Amino acid sequence: MALDAQPYITTSTIIANPKLNFSFTMFLYWTNQRKYYKLFEQKNLFNTIDVICVWGRIGGNLGNYKVIPCKNEEEVAKTIEQITKKRLSRGYKLIPLK
Q1: Distance between CA 14 and CA 34 in Å, rounded?
Q2: Could you state, in order of their start, the residue ranges of all structural domains in the chain?
Q3: In the chain, where does DSSP find H-type helix?
Q4: N or C: which end of the chain has fewer CB within 10 A?
Q5: The model scores a pTM over 0.85
Q6: Quick one: pLDDT at residue 91?
């Protein structure tokens, strides 16, 4: 698994309860000529880890996402490796994060 890019942390506040903050760690970001694909990791309230996949068209306002629940770090690594292989086989280029 090629994780050349440094992950960065973003924090979101739930509007219904501003005291709750969730942090997302972005691991990978790919693009091809017209599309992007992002992966985030997030711990949830049930003490498991979710891998969040976000994709869409560059410059467009439509897109979609998928949440993949994982039980532990090994399952997260396996999921990220599978997604990385699929993205690279479909012509996406890994963009290094700053």
Answers
A1: 31
A2: 8-92
A3: 73-89
A4: C
A5: no
A6: 92
